[in-house]
Structures are given as structure tokens and as C-alpha cells.
């Protein structure tokens, strides 16, 4: 584990530095709770101040020095204090002593925990803040009694007072990545952020506890937390210090809220004495929050609940759970989640009597994609004689918990209890899911098709055919899938869930074919019917997201991807450990980040997706393919090849519908290794296969990859009547009239501009790419234009350099074949001279620094200008940045 790093707080650091540098300001104090990072912020701000320019005096006040005169400043004042001086004389002596030590430099006095200063020290700080050429900065703990001279600092408008808030989720993720030397998956980051409340000290203790307990695991470079928490002594002591001693009544308040939050204030007041509730709120143990028309009570910090729940005796825990259930039932279970909460409390208290309650609660938990809770409730319902319905639900949930073998055992145990078509149909489809997606048995499709003929009820038959349709789509039997899906939609007896599953199958195929408008309309219809299918088939959401995600990715609609990864489903799936959902959405997010040129985030997110999906083969290959693409974008051929090998190993044959993504990533991997011939052969073969399968939406992107590799004239498709074959550019022109949206025509324009060798058209295409929010494509089109301008020694090369530099400045590390086109070979000496010249050094200065003659320097510069295609020094910075600065590689 690395040293605990400092991340974020850039605004606060800026305010601290401004307070020191601005002659009109006298300082700033940061106020915040214990462990929020005040002291670290102060240290990080001070370490950047040059000691030759400022006299920096740092003190840390403490309870042990609070009773001693000038005890708080004992670290910076002379050891010998003059005798016989009045209080005012002592203050003047202290100011003068610091002035003498400063030796004419401006004084910066930094006080950590200024609320613990003794009265003379506090008075001296106030006096110094009024003194010219002096800045006072410091920290205060929230809720502490402050010395009056310190409080007067901001009430008299001498210094600023800033509240230091908890770290946000992005800063918490960055801090975790820094301390663990690698990214942490999104779900783990979310849980650790919420549990720590954004408090760096508590986060540190949580990570140490999870590491010490072996609950942090690394897969594919990304860390994942199991969610289990060992309460290490340090962590417990921290919480105990905050909670303090509790009376019996207040402890009951905190315990009830710990087990029941969010708990209505009215219910809590019925269970305990209202005065105890008020005391708990005054002490900062609970908070009362208003949500719409409801007033709820929560714990002031999530870790309070962890400690209270762990320490509560079993018998008392059961009694508290029963009490909470009684309270909610007495009130009438009016809230949407009351059923679920009462079922859990009844189960935990051992007072459950009705298996139907557990079964209904399990369905509700599954509709929220809380897989662990749904599993627990469904198993309890089955154990309480819930019968076939409980077994079917449990097996379905186990399938999505990556436990297909256990799911089969549950189904086989009720195989003799299928007394009607409804049960047979549902048993058949659940077993089909488990065998096909859970165990990768492709023969399941034929088995389910044959068994469907045994059903006589048209509604039940429609359900089975809807599942058969999506299985056939996934194994690329697209014509049959489309026929079956349309047949389900044509059946009046089909349930809403069956119809919308069939609609998802058709929408996915339409997206792959490039019919984006029709696909979007179908997905919108599925989403509108969600209230009708959610309880019956919660996992249908996954089929809908796959269809929607395919369309958005192929259309280059990054804003649309942003919308679905920020939707409620993403939050629910992440919180409920619905790994197929979170994994797929992480792949989509990585795709969007890659196209935006955020290669760092793309690689981190794709690694997280690989880790989340490591135990499931449904989307594992897709995640590894996206990881390969992210690595290839950075020019990391070794990483891309490793990810591609994992994609081949983990890809399930039953998910053949994903082959375009995997094979496209294979081409990118070959290109990253510099083998453009092999990459071209791979992609032209893939384009031919996609054309044969009718997947024009995918074919467009594959052909565009060939354009990006400057292979627009490469032949693709079958031999024409004249004996020739279409070029990539010609085929893209054809597809641009068939594939919906603005992207395909733009890709066709780029291909045509490459074939016609038109830098002006390429630059125009680059502008349009930038307008669509696709900076990687814009940068590559600009690089292609620059390559042609340089080749013709055009005077417009300088402006193209500037444009390329500006585009790359907004991206992370990029290293693609198109960008390599404009990366000329500079000798080591030429690199040195060009770098110094770009920094503004004159030829004479360069000559003196490198021990060369001025004539030699000028000769080298002329060769550099020629190689870079620029006219002089003014264009050097952008040209050098374009070939090296943001591409992640120096010129050879």
C-alpha cells in the first residue's frame, strides 16, 4: 500500500495560496469535522511556498498547551521570555521576535487546530493578522468553542473563513486509486465513499480494515471490495470517540435508527421518548431530513450504524427488528418500500409467519436489482414452504448471481410439481436461461424450441417463443429470431413481458442493422411498458439496455450513453450487486470515454468492467475487447494483446451477437502493434462478414477503422460484374444512405477526402467530428490532413499543427496509426534544439547552452522546420505538442 496521497482540494489550495500571495488579504481559516483533511490541506499548501520568499512559522495547538501562556506558539517563539513586561508588552515582544526571525521576508503564520490556542496566543494571532506584511492561515474543528480573538478574525473581516466539505465521489475514487496503486471498481468506490461519508481519515481506516481482513481483491488491475467489513480497533476507537457515552434512552434511539433508517420521525417518537430523540440530534448522532412531505431520521454518519449493529447483542437485535416491524405494520405500510422492510425485519427477528410476505418482498428486491437481498428472501420463502413459485424465483435470481449450477438444483427439485402450462412454460424458460447464458449450452435453443410444442396455451407458448427468439439472436440466427419475435408481437394472448422481450430482440437487431430510428422507437415502447413487466421479468431491463446501448454506441451518441449510465437502473444495479447490469454499463461508459479521448478513464473503466464480469461469461469477452480498444488507443500493444487473449478465453459462444465488437478490437490490437497489413486483412474480412450478416450499423464503424488507418482505397466486398471490387470509400458512400444518423455520412466524407487526397476536406470533416463531441476522430482527421499538407510543403501546415495541438491538448495519452503519420523522425540533437527554441531561447543562448556555434544551431533549426512542415519558431510549440506532447510518445 502506498503513502496516503493528497488528492483533490484544488479550489481550497488555490484559496490558501491566494491568501498568502494577495497583499490585500490577511489570511484564511478552514473549518471542518475531525478527519476531513484540514491539517493535510494546510501542510500541502505550505509546502508549495518558497522559503526564500516567505518566513513560514507552523504551530500545532493542543489540549496540553491550552492552559499555558503562549503555549500554543511555543514552537516558534524564543525560549527565553523577557521578565517584567505587561501583557501588551509581551504581545509586542512576540511580534518583534517573529519579525526578526523573518529577516525582512513576509511572515506566514500557520496554526493547526486554532480552537485549542491559549488566550495570549490567540491574542497574538489576532494582532499579527492586523500587522502589515503578515498572513495568518489555520484550521478549526467544527463545533468547538473558539477563543474570542480567533472568532474576531473573520467577524472583523481580517481573514476568510472557509468550510471544508467531505470529499466527493470522484475525489474519493482518485484517493483510493492513489493509495492502492490501481483503480477501484465503481461499485466498491461508491460503497466506500458512502460509508466513509467522504471523510479521508475514516476512508483510510476502512481501507486498512478491508486490506487487513483480506476483503480487497485485485482482478485485471482493478480493486474490488467484497463489502464485508472487519471493525479494526482503530476504526472502532474513532467511532467511539465521536459517539461518546450514551444514556439508555439515547442508545435505544440510535439503535432503532441504525436498524431501521430511514425511519419516520413520528414513528420514532412513538417508540421512544421524544426528549431522547432531541438529545441524539443535538449531539450530532442522528439527523432529521425532510423528503417531500415526509420527515425522516437517519444516522449522522453511516459508520455509526456499523458499530451499533455489530455491538448489539443478538437477543436485543431480534427484539429491535420485531419492534420496527410492529411500528410499520401498525402505521399501515403506506410507503412503497414498507413491504420489503417489514419482511426483512420479520425474517431477522424470527417472527415471520407468512411465506407469501417473503415471496412478495423477494420480488420487490429483485425489481430493485438487489441480488443478495432478493436471494436471501427467496430462499427463506422456499424454506417456509413457498412451493414452486419460490423455487422459480430463487433459481432466476441465482442465475443473475452467477450461480447457475445451484439454480439448476433448485429447478430440478420442483420438476415434478409442474401441473399446468403456466408452470411448465416458466420452468422451461428459467431453465433455458440458466443452461444457455449461465452454462453456455448452445443446444438449449433446440431443446426449448422442441419442448414449446408441448404447450397448448397461446400465452404460455408466446413466453417460450420470446425467449427462444432472443437466444437465437444471441447466437446469430437472426432471421429466425426476427420471425419468432414478430410472431410473439402478433399474438394477442402474449403477456406484456413476453411482447416486450420480443420487442427488445427486434430493437437490438435493428440497431445492429443501422436502423437507429426504428430501434429507438421500439426501446421507448419497452420502457413505457416497464410498470407492466417489471414484477414479472425484472431482468428484461438488461435486454433493453443491450439494445439501447448497441444503438447509441453505433450511432456515436455519447450524450445518450451518458444518460443511461446515469439513470436509476445504474444506481440500483450498482447498489444491489447486479453485476451483469453494472458490468455492461461500465463497458458502455468506457466506450464513450474512449471516443472522447479520455484514454486514462477508458482504460480504468474497462478494467473495472472486466473485474465485475470476471465470474460471468455473458459480457466478459465484450469487457475485455473494450479493454483492448482502450489500450490500443494509447499505443500499448502488449496490454491490448493481453486483453484480446482474455476476450477470446472468456467469450461465450452463445453470445455470438457480440462478435463485431471483439473482431473490431482484434484489428485495433494488430494496428497498435504496428502490423497495419494484418489489421487491414482482419478488418476487411470482418466487413465482408458483417455485410453478409446484414449488420450495416457495425459495418460502418469497421470500414471507418480502415479509413483511420489510411486504407480508404482498400478493396472490400464481392467481385463486381466488371471484375473489380468496391473500395472502402465506395462502400461507405453506399452505407451512408442506408444507416440512420449524422455519423455515417461524415465517415463517408472522410473516406472520400482521403481517396481524393484533399486536406481541406479532411479539415472540414475534423471540424464536424469535433462538433459531434468526437475529438479522437477529429484529431486523426486533422493529422491525415497535416500529413498531406506536409507532403506537399503547403503553407497551411502551420495552422493544421495548431489545430491538432489544440485537439490533443483536450485528450489523454493517444497513440494511433493516424497520429503516427505526423510524427517525424528528429535526431536527439534536433529534439534538444527544437525544445529550447519552442521555450523562447534565442539561437545564441541555445548555442551557449549546448556548446555549439550559432550557425550549427540555425542549420539544425532549418532541418527541424522542414521535417515539421512549419515556417518558423512561432509554430514550433504547437507542432511539437502535436507530435509528442499529448500523444504519450516522444519523436523517434
UniProtKB/TrEMBL annotation:
Gene Ontology cellular component list: cytoplasm
Superkingdom of origin organism: Bacteria
Gene Ontology BP terms: regulation of DNA-templated transcription
Keywords attached to this entry: ATP-binding, Nucleotide-binding
PROSITE patterns: HTH_LUXR_1 (PS00622), HTH_LUXR_2 (PS50043)
Cross-referenced InterPro entries: AAA_16, P-loop_NTPase, Sig_transdc_resp-reg_C-effctor, Tscrpt_reg_LuxR_C, WH-like_DNA-bd_sf
One GO molecular-function entry: adenylate cyclase activity
SUPFAM superfamilies: C-terminal effector domain of the bipartite response regulators, P-loop containing nucleoside triphosphate hydrolases
Name recorded for this polypeptide: ATP-, maltotriose-and DNA-dependent transcriptional regulator MalT
Organism expressing this protein natively: Micromonospora mirobrigensis
Lineage, top ranks: Bacteria, Bacillati, Actinomycetota, Actinomycetes, Micromonosporales
Amino acid at each position: 500500500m502506498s503513502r496516503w496521497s493528497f488528492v483533490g482540494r484544488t479550489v481550497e489550495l488555490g484559496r490558501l495560496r491566494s491568501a498568502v500571495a494577495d497583499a490585500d488579504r490577511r489570511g484564511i481559516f478552514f473549518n471542518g469535522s475531525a478527519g476531513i483533511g484540514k491539517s493535510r490541506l494546510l501542510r500541502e499548501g505550505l509546502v508549495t511556498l518558497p522559503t526564500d520568499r516567505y518566513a513560514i512559522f507552523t504551530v500545532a495547538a493542543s489540549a496540553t498547551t491550552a492552559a499555558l501562556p503562549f503555549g500554543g506558539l511555543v514552537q516558534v517563539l524564543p525560549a527565553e521570555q523577557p521578565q517584567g513586561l505587561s501583557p501588551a508588552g509581551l504581545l509586542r515582544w512576540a511580534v518583534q521576535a517573529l519579525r526578526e526571525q523573518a529577516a525582512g521576508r513576509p511572515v506566514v503564520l500557520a496554526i493547526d487546530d486554532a480552537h485549542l490556542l491559549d488566550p495570549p496566543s490567540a491574542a497574538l494571532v489576532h494582532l499579527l493578522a492586523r500587522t502589515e506584511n503578515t498572513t495568518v492561515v489555520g484550521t478549526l474543528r467544527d463545533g468547538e468553542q473558539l477563543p474570542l480573538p480567533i472568532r474576531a478574525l473573520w467577524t472583523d473581516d481580517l481573514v476568510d473563513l472557509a468550510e471544508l466539505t467531505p470529499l466527493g465521489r470522484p475525489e474519493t475514487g482518485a484517493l483510493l486509486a492513489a493509495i492502492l496503486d490501481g483503480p477501484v471498481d465503481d461499485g466498491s468506490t461508491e460503497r466506500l465513499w458512502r460509508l466513509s461519508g467522504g471523510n479521508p481519515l475514516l476512508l483510510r481506516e476502512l481501507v486498512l480494515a478491508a486490506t487487513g481482513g483480506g476483503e480487497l481483491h485485485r482482478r485485471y488491475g482493478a480493486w474490488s471490495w467484497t463489502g464485508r467489513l472487519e471493525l479494526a480497533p482503530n476504526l472502532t476507537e474513532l467511532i467511539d470517540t465521536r459517539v461518546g457515552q450514551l444514556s439508555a434512552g439515547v442508545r435505544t434511539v440510535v439503535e432503532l435508527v441504525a436498524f431501521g433508517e430511514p425511519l419516520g420521525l413520528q414513528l420514532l417518537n412513538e417508540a421512544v421518548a421524544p426528549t431522547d430523540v432531541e438529545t441524539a440530534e443535538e449531539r450530532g448522532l442522528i439527523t432529521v431530513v425532510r423528503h417531500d412531505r415526509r420527515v425522516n431520521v437517519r444516522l449522522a454518519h453511516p459508520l455509526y450504524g456499523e458499530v451499533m449493529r455489530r455491538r448489539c447483542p443478538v437477543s436485543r437485535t431480534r427484539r429491535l427488528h420485531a419492534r420496527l416491524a410492529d411500528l410499520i405494520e401498525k402505521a399501515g405500510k403506506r410507503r412503497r418500500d414498507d413491504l420489503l422492510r417489514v419482511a426483512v425485519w420479520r425474517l431477522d427477528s424470527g417472527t415471520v409467519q407468512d411465506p407469501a410476505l417473503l415471496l412478495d418482498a423477494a420480488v420487490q428486491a429483485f425489481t430493485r436489482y438487489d441480488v443478495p437481498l432478493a436471494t436471501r428472501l427467496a430462499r427463506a420463502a422456499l424454506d417456509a414452504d413457498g412451493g414452486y413459485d419460490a423455487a422459480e424465483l430463487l433459481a432466476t435470481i441465482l442465475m443473475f448471481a452467477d450461480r447457475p449450477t445451484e439454480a439448476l438444483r433448485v429447478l430440478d427439485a420442483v420438476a415434478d410439481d409442474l401441473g399446468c402450462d403456466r408452470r411448465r412454460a416458466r420452468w422451461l424458460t428459467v431453465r433455458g436461461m440458466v443452461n444457455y447464458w449461465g452454462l453456455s449450452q448452445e443446444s438449449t435453443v433446440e431443446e426449448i424450441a422442441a419442448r414449446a410444442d408441448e404447450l397448448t396455451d397461446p400465452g404460455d407458448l408466446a413466453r417460450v417463443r420470446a425467449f427462444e427468439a432472443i437466444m437465437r439472436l444471441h447466437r446469430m440466427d437472426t432471421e429466425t429470431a426476427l420471425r419468432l419475435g414478430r410472431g410473439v408481437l402478433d399474438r394477442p394472448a402474449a403477456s406484456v413481458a413476453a411482447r416486450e422481450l420480443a420487442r427488445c430482440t427486434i430493437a437490438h437487431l435493428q440497431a445492429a442493422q443501422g436502423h437507429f430510428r426504428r430501434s429507438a422507437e421500439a426501446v421507448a415502447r419497452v420502457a413505457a411498458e416497464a410498470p407492466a413487466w417489471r414484477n414479472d421479468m425484472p431482468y428484461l431491463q438488461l435486454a433493453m439496455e443491450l439494445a439501447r446501448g448497441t444503438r447509441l454506441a453505433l450511432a456515436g451518441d455519447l450524450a445518450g450513453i451518458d444518460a443511461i449510465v446515469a439513470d436509476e437502473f445504474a444506481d440500483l444495479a450498482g447498489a444491489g450487486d447486479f453485476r451483469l447490469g453494472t458490468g455492461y454499463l461500465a463497458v458502455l461508459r468506457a466506450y464513450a470515454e474512449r471516443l472522447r479521448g479520455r484514454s486514462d478513464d477508458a482504460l480504468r473503466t474497462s478494467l473495472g468492467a472486466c473485474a465485475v464480469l470476471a465470474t460471468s461469461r455473458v459480457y466478459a469477452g465484450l469487457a475485455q475487447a473494450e479493454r483492448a480498444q482502450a489500450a490500443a488507443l494509447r499505443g500499448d500493444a502488449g496490454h491490448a494483446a493481453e486483453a484480446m487473449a482474455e476476450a477470446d478465453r472468456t467469450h461465450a459462444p452463445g453470445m455470438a451477437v457480440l462478435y463485431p465488437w471483439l473482431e473490431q478490437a482484434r484489428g485495433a490490437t494488430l494496428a497498435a502493434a504496428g502490423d497495419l497489413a494484418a489489421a487491414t486483412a482482419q478488418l476487411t474480412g470482418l466487413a465482408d462478414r458483417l455485410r453478409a450478416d446484414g449488420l450495416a450499423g457495425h459495418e460502418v464503424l469497421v470500414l471507418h477503422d480502415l479509413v483511420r488507418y489510411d486504407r480508404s482505397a482498400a478493396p472490400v466486398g464481392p467481385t463486381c460484374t466488371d471484375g473489380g471490387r468496391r473500395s472502402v470509400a465506395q462502400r461507405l458512400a453506399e452505407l451512408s444512405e442506408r444507416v440512420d444518423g449524422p455519423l455515417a455520412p461524415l465517415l463517408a466524407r472522410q473516406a472520400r477526402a482521403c481517396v481524393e487526397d484533399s486536406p481541406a476536406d479532411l479539415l472540414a470533416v475534423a471540424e464536424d467530428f469535433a462538433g459531434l463531441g468526437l475529438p479522437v476522430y477529429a484529431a486523426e482527421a486533422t493529422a491525415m490532413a497535416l500529413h498531406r499538407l506536409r507532403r506537399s510543403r503547403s503553407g497551411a501546415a502551420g495552422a493544421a499543427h495548431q489545430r491538432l495541438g489544440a485537439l490533443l491538448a483536450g485528450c489523454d495519452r493517444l497513440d494511433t496509426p493516424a497520429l503516427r503519420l505526423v510524427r517525424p523522425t528528429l535526431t536527439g540533437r534536433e529534439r534538444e534544439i527544437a525544445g529550447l527554441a519552442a521555450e523562447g531561447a534565442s539561437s545564441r543562448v541555445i548555442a551557449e547552452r549546448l556548446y555549439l556555434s550559432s550557425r550549427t544551431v540555425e542549420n539544425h533549426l532549418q532541418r527541424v522546420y522542414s521535417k515539421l512542415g512549419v515556417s518558423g519558431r512561432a509554430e514550433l510549440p504547437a507542432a511539437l505538442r502535436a507530435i509528442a506532447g499529448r500523444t504519450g510518445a516522444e519523436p523517434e
